[in-house]
Amino acid sequence: MEEHLVDWSRAQFALTAMYHWIFVPLTLGLGFIVAIMETIYLKTNDEFWKKTTKFWMSLFAINFAIGVATGIIMEFEFGTNWANYSWFVGDIFGAPLAVEGILAFFMESTFFAVMFFGWEKVSKGFHLLSTWLVAIGSNLSALWILVANAWMQYPIGMTFNPNTVRNEMNNFWDVLFSPVAISKFLHTIGSGYVLASLFVIGVSAWYLLKKRDILFAKKSMIIGATFGLITSIFLILSGDESAHQIALKQPMKLAAMEGLYEGEEKVGIVAFGLLNPKKTMTNDENTFLFDFTIPYALSFLSFHDINAYVPGIKDLVYGNEERGILSVEEKMQKGKVAIEALESYKGAKKTSNEFLLNNSKILLDENMKYFGYGHIKNKEDVIPPVSITFYSFHIMVGLGTWFTILFALVLFLSTKKEILNYRIILKLTLFSIPLGYIASEAGWVVAEVGRQPWAIQDLMPVGIATTKIATTNVMISFFIFAILFTVLLIAEIKIMTKQIKIGPNGGH
User: Fold this and answer.
1) Under a CB-based contact definition with an 8 Å cutoff, are residues 108 and 68 in contact?
2) Which of 59, 111, 229, 467 has its CA 20 to 30 A from that of 328?
3) What is the DSSP code (8-state) at residue 154?
4) Cα–Cα distance for residue pair 209/150, rounded to 1 Å
5) pLDDT value at position 508?
């Protein structure tokens, strides 16, 4: 029954997070695109750009409002479904979320009202400032949330207090400026900018295919493609650093991303391939039914050295003494020592046994980084779902490559040719909008599924993090949320499409 509770709690949070992430990336990027357009309006005083800004701003507002609804629900779930997690690390995890609510969300919400309703009520300069502050505020919200998520991937800046059985923050700046937090923030907002750019050029392509609002569509397409091409290059660079940090901090995730069972030197990246469903850690089956590999690329991507050794799943499970890699069983033993030392500490405190208290504390501190492994039942449990992680990663990378090519092509045709004559490109541009969402969601699948079974890397498995409540309660709320989020998504699509059909020359 407990296993079912964990599965349903995990499913509910995954549902909420994935629906929330449908709305967030468009907000992150479209805010800046709107701000750029309004800046052009202020510089030129051309009513065309005011009309263009207002149109894209209306789509931004629709998406912003629905995104807030899903985000609030997700934060409440930490208390309702993940109480043990919240108790264990709430002192650390809650801090960036509190800053996000007090500072970033307050700022973007306040200036959102000015941006959307203040066109004729404030000066042009102040209105432009409000628009930029909304865009910046949205990204600052993402910063604090991603700092919290990055800490789950790489816990740092804390001390475990055995008296309260909680991890307590001892260095806020270590949490904020963690290399994982920085790389995750930059890569995630980059993906949002790319998606928003796809949305702008895709909607613009629809107008061109319909042969209406042509000037508006062409100008919007140039801005979207330019912003998209620049941010695509940024996304590639931030992705390189993100992969490097994964290699250093979460090697099992990296091995799953590439379907790497055997550690190798000078290992290549599988550009595309089909996993062998019969392959397991314990057999000698080929990992791939077929694959195309770029030589040396994974070694370089992981450690910026083409000769580097990249550990595989077997190394990480069974250990590799030559490479200094502990086996999972060794980590499990150290984790059990930490758990026993904690219990011993509690007992010594009750009996005021200072000698036992000090010895237990020393033993606990020595083994605390393996604490989570003490709750692992089987060594194979530390292997994430390889196929899901592998295919999600390659879908994300493959689509990201296509988007970069598409932005360059659209920008070239929009500035050097007559893009109206290239209807196939316009159709591909339009149909790339949903591909942007698929790539974005795939990225989060890699990040979250790839670190399973950990709620907090090496410190707390997901099974220990849940609230002890009736499984049926979680099941009921899961279906309620599924219906609610689906209704919200359908509502957004309908409102968005209606607004797009009205176009920039109506409704304002």
Assistant:
1) no
2) 467
3) S
4) 42
5) 43
Q: Which residue has the higher pLDDT, 256 or 73?
A: 256
- Average pLDDT, stretch 439-468? 92
Beta bridge partners of 271: none
Other CB atoms within 10 Å distance of the CB of residue 100: 22
- Residue 311 pLDDT exceeds 50: yes
For 297, residues 6+ apart whose C-beta sits below 8 A from its C-beta are 268, 269
Query: Could you read off the pLDDT of 39-61 as tens digits, one per residue?
Result: 999 999 999 999 999 999 999 98
pLDDT at 151 over 90: yes
> Is residue 396 situated within a structural domain?
yes
Contacts of 310 (CB under 8 A, 6+ apart): 247, 251, 254, 255, 260, 263, 264, 265, 267, 298, 299, 302, 303
Residues 137, 66 share a domain: yes
Residue in the structure block whose two tokens are 């209306």: 58
- Based on the structure, what is the number of domains in the chain? 2
Q: Decide: 444 and 184 in contact? Cβ < 8 Å.
A: no
Q: Determine the pLDDT at residue 469.
A: 86
Q: Let me know the angle formed at the C-alpha of 404 by 403 and 409, rounded to the nearest 5 degrees.
A: 95
Measured CA to CA, the distance from residue 179 to residue 188 in angstroms comes to 14
**Of residues 500, 495, 493, the one with CA closest to residue 437:** 493
H/E stretch holding 442: helix 423-449
Angstrom distance (rounded) from CA 209 to CA 199: 15
Burial 333-364 (b: 16+ CB within 10 A, else e): bbbbbbbebbebbeebeeeeeeeebeebbebb
Q: Work out the burial of residue 472: count CB atoms within 10 Å of its CB; fewer than 13 is exposed, 13-18 middle, 19 or more buried.
A: exposed
| Averaged pLDDT score across all residues of the chain | 92
Give the domain extent around 351: 252-383
Residue 254 has pLDDT above 50, yes or no: yes
Clarify whether residues 100 and 184 are in a common domain.
Answer: yes
378 plus 396 within the same structural domain: no
| Exposure string for 415-424, b = 16+ CB within 10 A, e = fewer | eeeebeebee
Q: How far is Cα 60 from Cα 19, in angstroms, rounded to an integer? A: 17
Whether residues 92 and 205 share a domain: the answer is yes
Identify the CA nearest to 239 among candidates 187, 291, 162.
187
DSSP of 88-123: HHHHHHHHHHHHIIIIIIHHHHHHHHHHHH-TTTS-
Integer Cα distance of 456 and 235 in angstroms: 26
Q: Are residues 461 and 367 located together in one domain of the fold?
A: no
Cis peptide before 461 (omega within 30 of 0): no
Q: Judge whether 507 lies within some domain.
A: no
**Reduced to 3 states, what is the DSSP secondary structure of residue 498?**
helix
Instruction: Give the residue ranges of DSSP H helices in 450-470.
Output: 462-465
**pTM score, whole prediction:** 0.92
Q: What is the C-alpha R_g of the chain?
A: 25
Of 355, 383, 411, the one marking the end of a domain is 383
